[in-house]
Fold this sequence. Notes:
By secondary structure, chain A is mostly beta strands.
Amino acid sequence: xxxxxxxxxxLLAFVAVxxxxxxxxxxxxxVKTFTTSLPGMDERKTGAVALQKVNIxxxxxxxxxxxxxxxxxxxxxxxxxxxNISKENIxxxxxxxxxxxxxxxxxxxxxxxxxxxxxxxxxxxxxxDETSKQDLLRCFSLANGDELWQRGYxxxxxxxxxxSRTIPAVNDKYVVTIxxxxxxxxxxxxSGDLLWGLxxxxxxxxxxxxxxxxxxPLIDNDTAVIATGGKSLLIGIDCKTGKKAWETPNPGNWxxxxxxxxxxxxxxxxxxxxxxxxxxxxxxAEGADKGKLLWESADFAPAVIAPSPVILxxxxxxxxxxxxxxxxxxxVKENGGKYSTEINAKYKPLEGLASEQQTPIFHDGYLFGIxxxxxxxxxxxxxxxxxxxxxxxxMSSGKTERYGLGPYVxxxxxxxxxxxxxxxxxxxYSTSMFKVLDKAKIIDGQDSWGPIAITGGYLxxxxxxxxxxxxxxxx
Amino acid sequence: MQNRRDFLNLLCRGTILxxxxxxxxxxxxxxxxxxxxxxxxxCSNCGKSxxxxxxxxVLYRSTVWQLDPAKCIQCGRCxxxxxxxxxAVKATHVxxxxxxxxxxxxxxxxxxxxxxxxxxxxxxxxxxxxRKFVEDPFYQYTIDEPLCIGxxxxxxxxSAFGNGSLQLQxxxxxxxxxxxCAIARDCPADAYSRVPASKPYLLQGIESKPDDKxxx
Lengths: 475, 216
């Protein structure tokens, strides 16, 4: 009898414990301290950003004038032929010599990566003056660095991996600039007189890119060609009047990138090629349909893109971007006046030629470039690839010669390659072997990313705060 | 009065005890003098290292393990090879080097289309990096230490696309300071070394011992 009662109590206790355990198991939440990561947890501000009213070209200071040096021209980003190759018949140095680099002049600049354009002995650079808080188009004498004039406007900027980062476009009459916050300015090349200004953010709802504008403007037949993003994709502005000559709609709401517009002629048709944030497009650059969208491709659309498209042969375009995006080869096709595209290759930085910041050089069927940090063993090396096979390098600078994000240019059969740290290397042009002819530390070199300009035996380069002009003529 | 037998017994015992004492004394003296440790200098297991005068113990007390961010290749072994779970190695953010970018290579996956704090956009597998808006266009990134497992994904992203302000460091409030560090033994970049305990961090961009305002 007692045994039965004890047994029943034990059974009851066991059942109660079992029920309690099951209840606890059901109630207990092992992830109750977890929080779900949802959009907006960074308290990002939404809605329209209050635009500053900018009076473009409001300030002007004249210092002096200078003599022309006819024929000295590096009139825009990547030079006259958009290829970063100087074709002048001037012999350039093979080494820095016993006395080292011959620095003709130096100028202090605002922090940034904006680089100069040169036209007939005058150097143009869009600087940012942190003291007066102005975008300043500064004109210098190429021969001695004397400042000739400044044209600018007040705009508030905060340091964001540098401030300035574009190159003016210059022809015999005009200079066109785009400022960090998308203000376009056109002035008389010689006098600096203001012709017109255009605020893309307020006029075209352009979204200022990360780290400010990187797009360098283009002047084509006295028309300024600008990729706006926002309300339009591309616009053409008459440099003389400032009036809009044509406009390309932007139904996909593509955004402005750091890439610049590159002209291309395919089967006799001239077109502008632009890599926007959203995709790549070809816009008619001539004839009655000027400004018409001829083709587009959204197959390669990274969140940020700095290098410009490299126009290869027969409608093939090489496009690359950093931040893990890699590169792609787009083939443009034409059939009865209709254009289409096809992706020939698409790969990550580990798998072939890619670039984060600088645009590769295409020459004699080969592409040359500095690979990004996420390119494995070839990271930050200067390397060469056949344009027909951009996955396999045929030459590289080796693990002892790495250049970071620095610029490079081809002149007189030599590469001039600037490292992040301000060391300028002269390397023999070759597609099979990298041979350093000489190298020298030129400037302090923090973030020496601004593209190099070479003309008339002068080489212009910069680090984050100093512009330097070197004499590189062979003696 | 002792008899002859007792006297001999006492003499033998005395001789044996004296010999043992002398042997122990000599061994102890030679042990200290030559710097040998009967435990093979495994100081972290000994429990007596605070008072030990052996050279290894003195060195052990005055140095700690640390990894050099300049040598680190972000292989991910710090997360898996440490005897601690989660690892004593964690990401550390040097604010002085950070660009405070909206598009942060250490926070966002490389192919992210929408820049936001949504989980699918984050590079960190445990969501240990917190992102806060500071002012247009800047964002601050801080590490939630208990969540960080030391996988180095953020460090890799930051050094590939940014300033390299995210760096791995051994956190000494968690590190057992093993004499034979399991991570150091397998580190392919040979990035680990023992550093003075008075300067236990090797952060790039900070000269001296970091304080809370400099890192996060």
